Amino acid sequence: MVAPWKIALAYGLALLVAFASERLVPAWSGVLISAVFLYLPFWMARDQADPATTWGLHLAGWRRSLGVAAAWCGGLFPLFALAFGGYQALVLRPGSGAGGWGVPVFERARLERWDDDLYGEPGPDATGLVVRARPDDRLEIRNHGAATARIRIEGPMAERGVATRPPARLVPRPGHGVVVDLPPGGAVQRRWPAAGHVSVLEPEGEVLRAPTGRALGPSHASVALNPGLGWWLTFVLWQLAMIALSEELFFRGFVQTSLNARWTTRWRVLGAEVGWAWPMTALLFAAGHLATAPHPARLLVFFPGLLMGWLRERTGGLLAPIVFHGLANLAMELLVRLHAAR
User: Fold this and answer.
1) Is 103 within a domain?
2) Which of 105, 218, 237, 305 is most buried, taking the most CB atoms under 10 A from its CB?
């Protein structure tokens, strides 16, 4: 049995790492948080025999666990998608109509993403023309040099439209794509991922660079910028193998099981024997999300936390909550992209 002070210490350390890493090293925060959630429980329970099995980290009854998780996903996800679209239409974007936030738009560009090395902020010593993908997948080209640059953007990237940020300005050049003058500090932005080509016309010898400083192509060559769909495979694996696994091990495995051993009162809910550890773990799970993004809406994860806690008790293991957790994050990412205002 894990002592209460160990549960409190583990929870406090996990929140501290989440809060600090998200602000100090955001590019590595996900890895650091997952590592803490995975390894801290085992350190706290290092004197116990086989704590992983006690916490439900096993594959016993895996067919039943997958079936229960699939049933809940199939029943809840369509309802949530309708509620999500209704909220966008009635609250966030009333009167938006077809193609607005109330109606999902199934366009390939909404599902594509740029190469990972384009994401991130340029360092303080960045020079020249830096191509950066923002967190919302909008592509931005900013001049960090000392002289005005002129670039040409061709392909669907130009046909769909670009936006400039002063002191940058568009130069009319019919039939030759979009030409942009970029004085120092100027930027041009593409509204969503779409394949295209960018050429540096002036100054001579200038190249396009990623935020890391890596040259994207030789000088005066047309650089192809092509987003893709391959990132979804990485995203799914990351959500299931890291995010869902680590969070479920910590909360539904370590915390909920440890609290169940302390609070022995039980009652039956939809075929699962649950106790006070069930809502308490969901509450701690929701409060923990405030460490990375302190917004009241983050507390809404209390409700899926309740369901994942129920899945833990109903199936006797962590497989069902891990699968539901990962697929729920995937569904949320998909809905946000299909409803995003462009």
Assistant:
1) no
2) 305
Q: DSSP assignment of 255-305, as one string?
A: IHHHHHHH----EEETTEEE-THHHHHHHHHHHHGGGTS--GGGGGGHHHH
| Cα gap 257→250, rounded to integer Å | 10
Among 282, 258, 285, 276, CA closest to 54: 258
Flag whether 100 is in a domain.
Answer: no
Task: Tell whether 102 is covered by a domain.
Answer: no
pLDDT tens profile 287-337:
999 999 888 999 999 999 999 999 999 999 999 999 999 999 999 999 999
Could you say which of 208, 225, 242 is where a domain stops? Answer: 225
In 3D space, the residue among 79, 60, 64, 57 whose CA is nearest the CA of residue 244 turns out to be 57
Mean local confidence (pLDDT), 66-94: 90
Distance, first Cα to last Cα, the chain: 52
Say what the pTM is. 0.88
| Beta partners for residue 209, in sequence order | 130, 215
Indicate whether 221 and 183 sit together in one domain.
yes
Helix (H) or strand (E) holding 13: helix 4-24
Number of domains into which the chain is organized: 2
Say if residue 208 is in the same domain as residue 245: no
* Tokens 């699962």 sit on residue: 272
Query: What pLDDT does 154 receive?
Result: 85
Amino acid at 133: A
Residue ranges making up the domain that contains 81? 4-95+231-339
Measured CA to CA, the distance from residue 162 to residue 170 in angstroms comes to 9
Tokens in use for 129? 């023309």
Q: Which residues contact 326 (CB under 8 A, 6 or more apart)?
A: 236, 239, 240, 243, 244
SS (H, E, C) 75-97: HHHHHHHHHHHHHHHHHHCCCCC
Do 194 and 252 lie in one domain? The reply is no
Is residue 104 in some structural domain? no
